[in-house]
């Protein structure tokens, strides 16, 4: 089975580790640069992307992470993890850094005050038989994508109809929502399959 790290600076690390194990991967929390080197893939969990950015700077992680991403390591980012994979962010802090790698612009805390947290059924194109239940917690949305980015899910009902909430570019996958909180393993299975194809 592939070894998939879960970036354990901050956020819901344990839930991702459980979901990855259920999808057949060996999951391990990682937070030091030398722990990144021998991973087959990485998950960046939800949490608070500004805090994650600060901690990643102080742990010296951005260099090794960007190198591995550039070399093709698969990474899946959920919510704050989506922000970490975006080449550009809107409404970020001035000093906020991202790993980048997906040619997209992501808006932080995009869904507005009344709706900062909500749930919605969404069609996930890799698993079209039945919708996924999306849990959105102060989530970002994808404001725009470059030509190389595949859209995997958009919201289908008002007031946020048409908003892009899941994407893939190469070996990088990102979702605005939190599949690790729903007991539905399809996003993690999709990612583990991608990792198996990549290694
Ligand atoms: N609002 C958070 C951020 O900007 C993301 C929230 C989450 O990951 N649940 O980083």
UniProtKB/TrEMBL annotation:
<dbReference type="Pfam" id="PF01174">
    <property type="entry name" value="SNO"/>
</dbReference>
<feature type="binding site">
    <location>
        <begin position="47"/>
        <end position="49"/>
    </location>
    <ligand>
        <name>L-glutamine</name>
    </ligand>
</feature>
<dbReference type="InterPro" id="IPR021196">
    <property type="entry name" value="PdxT/SNO_CS"/>
</dbReference>
<keyword id="KW-0378">Hydrolase</keyword>
<comment type="pathway">
    <text>Cofactor biosynthesis; pyridoxal 5'-phosphate biosynthesis.</text>
</comment>
<dbReference type="InterPro" id="IPR002161">
    <property type="entry name" value="PdxT/SNO"/>
</dbReference>
<feature type="active site" description="Charge relay system">
    <location>
        <position position="180"/>
    </location>
</feature>
<keyword id="KW-0456">Lyase</keyword>
<keyword id="KW-0663">Pyridoxal phosphate</keyword>
<comment type="subunit">
    <text>In the presence of PdxS, forms a dodecamer of heterodimers. Only shows activity in the heterodimer.</text>
</comment>
<protein>
    <recommendedName>
        <fullName>Pyridoxal 5'-phosphate synthase subunit PdxT</fullName>
        <ecNumber>4.3.3.6</ecNumber>
        <ecNumber>3.5.1.2</ecNumber>
    </recommendedName>
</protein>
<comment type="function">
    <text>Catalyzes the hydrolysis of glutamine to glutamate and ammonia as part of the biosynthesis of pyridoxal 5'-phosphate. The resulting ammonia molecule is channeled to the active site of PdxS.</text>
</comment>
<feature type="active site" description="Nucleophile">
    <location>
        <position position="79"/>
    </location>
</feature>
<dbReference type="InterPro" id="IPR029062">
    <property type="entry name" value="Class_I_gatase-like"/>
</dbReference>
<feature type="binding site">
    <location>
        <position position="108"/>
    </location>
    <ligand>
        <name>L-glutamine</name>
    </ligand>
</feature>
<keyword id="KW-0315">Glutamine amidotransferase</keyword>
<feature type="binding site">
    <location>
        <begin position="137"/>
        <end position="138"/>
    </location>
    <ligand>
        <name>L-glutamine</name>
    </ligand>
</feature>
<feature type="active site" description="Charge relay system">
    <location>
        <position position="178"/>
    </location>
</feature>
<comment type="similarity">
    <text>Belongs to the glutaminase PdxT/SNO family.</text>
</comment>
